[in-house]
Amino acid sequence: MKKFITINVAQAHLRWKQGSALLIDIRDQHSYLVSHAPGALHLANDKVQSFIRQTDFTKPLMVMCYHGNSSRDAAQYLLEQGFAAVYSVDGGFTAWAKQYPRDVTTK
Q1: Could you say which of 22, 26, 61, 65 is catalytic?
Q2: Is the pLDDT of residue 1 over 80?
Q3: Is the model's pLDDT at 87 over the cut of 80?
Q4: I need a labelling partner for 85 at 20 to 30 A (CA). Which of 5, 12, 14, 94 fits?
């Protein structure tokens, strides 16, 4: 069985800047609306199936939650659905916002 890969915030930020992976934010709707990485796609549980149907399975995915814990389960699930490469962002949005405050969209 394939397993997701954990990447740090610096690796995720580089891939985000290069446009080489789709950034997925799985935090709750309110937290996402208040602040998120620009271009990050908010993915709630009720939208997962439509996301899977509409997304290119060859595009790498980077999954981000609050601190990098919940994103691990989500990354593994997406990998098991057939996506070629799925990453869990270690440290999550908290680390992203701390390390790259200029790359945070706020309400």
Answers
A1: 65
A2: no
A3: yes
A4: 94
